[in-house]
Structure formats: structure tokens, C-alpha cells
Amino acid sequence: MALEEFVKQPFIQEDHMFQKIMDICIQRLRKCYCGLTPHHVVSKFDDRTSTLYYNVAEPEDVNCSAA
Question: Its domain of life (predicted)?
């Protein structure tokens, strides 16, 4: 299954934590994701709040082209 098709699956669309994880993976593949900041999200797997770290741009990161 292609990545684009996978992320459109209903279960994936309903789970905010998994959506963010997939967004991180896709952005990192595109070299548009550079760092971490904490965000609180609830997973549909267990309905518990967890901290997910994402979305801090650090242009000095040699593996990242985000500014």
C-alpha cells in the first residue's frame, strides 16, 4: 500500500497521535522537519494523554532544509 493511500485510511484519520506521527515521518522524508517541541495529544488506542515531540525548525541542522 502506498504511503498516501495508507494515511487516508479511516482509522488513521481518526487517531490524532498517529496522524501527527505520520506527518512527522512524511516531513522528515521531505527534509522539512528539523526538531522537537512537546505537544499533548490523546491516542485513540488507549484514550490517554501523551506527550509527542515535534515541529521545531533548526536551519543549522545539516539534514534539514526547513527555515
Answer: Eukaryota
